Amino acid sequence: MLQILHNPRCGKSRNCLAFLENNKATFEIRNYIQNPLSEEELKTVIQKLAIKPIALVRQKEAIWIDQFKDKTMSDNEVIRALTLHPILMERPIVIKDNKAIIGRDLEKLEKFL
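Above: the chain sequence. Below: its structure as tokens.
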């Protein structure tokens, strides 16, 4: 089954959710703002995305700019920042088995499915 890490306040995330619904996909929704990922869960997602943790950060968010922008951070420190401030995470993320994709581009999402 698919899982979508969803932020209902995000237009791209809502579009992804609508795309999945319109394609009759079976999926589970996790509002990661209300139900944040643990550090271990986030590490697993990053591994499935096959990216570095910094690539998952929305670097134009005010929290990032105010608290982290000019700091040199290890991967673990970036993951910790994402767990403390889930709004910093790129979205939506669609997870399928051992792979995941940031579902902003619906064409890429369609190929992923």
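The mean pLDDT is 95.
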